[in-house]
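Per your request, structure below.
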């Protein structure tokens, strides 16, 4: 039997949350994020430097012997909750979680040290929509060189090292400057996608791709739920605040019973998502035998709740919610993009049915 999951936040986790939230308040305001996505450089590398150099958060999952923090997925989940609340345009999930997990599976100490310190940004060259355990595209490995094109790679534009799976079953580290990285038009401009083209590029063999990619995507899917939780929690909190302040017929709009019912239902959904996301983070942290179930449950729950919360926020903000200047569109776009990242809710429900031996008739 697995140990009972601990869904509560520890004092240390709450202290970490407060520190990250304060940092984001100073470095990641909504007007700044909107201005960035209108430019050619949507990533906030100054914020990334503050998160990595100042707080060491890129190395949470890396052992202390490799200059990491030696923390767990629980702490990383708290960071992702706060990054989700701010829709922060930083490559934390893709580099500090997904790429890091792939390198941990391969035991690549030097690259782990670089990612932990923030001196390098890593990106797993697997499309963002690929679910854990699903098939993914690979490149050709011929005569020691890599050839091929991979699409939908998140945060490839700022990556220093690309982790590329090849047709010989290996995972290769590729210097990003040797690849051609072409931006793709994506709905969520705070997590840009790109096409990576390799035309006879040398790569360093790290290990077997299949177990490394599977481990990386499982951690990415499990902790993405915490980002979606942060996003949903912000939209609910901000909507309640707005409806308390906004008046119609000389009374707060939030006082109308129909809106109270909608907000109460949303609160219940967010509370359920919090439990599922915390359970996934705890299972990943503990290496639980039920980790696959925990991750699929979290992702089956997370996407519908995050999208619903963002849609309600946009609608209940009325006319101002439809404007470009108000940040709610950032949250709706991130929620929609996250709903297909690392597998759709439907794909995770199907996977869950197989895990618990509950096949369709």
């Amino acid at each position: 039997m697995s140990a009972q999951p601990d869904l509560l936040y520890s004092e240390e986790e709450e202290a970490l949350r407060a520190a990250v939230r304060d940092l984001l308040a100073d470095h990641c305001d909504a007007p700044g994020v909107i201005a960035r996505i209108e430019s050619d450089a949507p990533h906030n590398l100054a914020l990334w430097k503050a998160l990595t150099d100042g707080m060491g958060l890129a190395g949470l999952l890396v052992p202390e012997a490799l200059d990491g923090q030696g923390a767990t997925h629980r702490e990383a989940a708290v960071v992702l909750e706060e990054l989700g609340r701010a829709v922060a345009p930083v490559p934390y999930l893709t580099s500090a979680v997904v790429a890091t997990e792939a390198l941990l599976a391969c035991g690549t100490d030097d690259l782990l040290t670089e990612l932990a310190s923030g001196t390098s940004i890593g990106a797993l060259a697997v499309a963002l929509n690929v679910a854990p355990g699903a098939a993914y595209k690979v490149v050709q490995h011929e005569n020691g060189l890599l050839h091929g094109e991979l699409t939908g790679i998140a945060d490839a534009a700022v990556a220093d090292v690309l982790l590329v799976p090849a047709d010989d079953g290996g995972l290769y580290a590729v210097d990003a400057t040797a690849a051609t990285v072409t931006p793709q038009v994506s709905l969520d401009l705070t997590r840009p996608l790109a096409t990576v083209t390799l035309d006879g590029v040398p790569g360093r063999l790290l290990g077997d791709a299949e177990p490394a990619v599977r481990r990386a995507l499982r951690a990415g899917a499990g902790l993405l739920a915490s980002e979606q939780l942060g996003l949903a929690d912000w939209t609910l909190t901000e909507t309640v605040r707005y409806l308390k302040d906004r008046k119609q017929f000389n009374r707060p709009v939030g006082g109308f019973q129909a809106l109270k019912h909608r907000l109460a239902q949303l609160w219940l959904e967010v509370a359920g998502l919090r439990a599922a996301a915390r359970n996934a983070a705890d299972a990943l942290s503990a290496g639980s035998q039920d980790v696959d179930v925990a991750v699929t449950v979290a992702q089956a729950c997370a996407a519908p709740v995050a999208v619903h919360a963002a849609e309600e926020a946009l609608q209940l903000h009325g006319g101002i919610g439809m404007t470009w200047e108000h940040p709610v569109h950032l949250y709706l776009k991130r929620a929609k993009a996250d709903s297909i990242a690392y597998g759709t809710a439907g794909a995770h429900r199907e996977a869950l049915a197989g895990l618990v031996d509950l096949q369709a008739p």
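Residues 245 and 252 are 6 Å apart (CA to CA).

Regards,
D.
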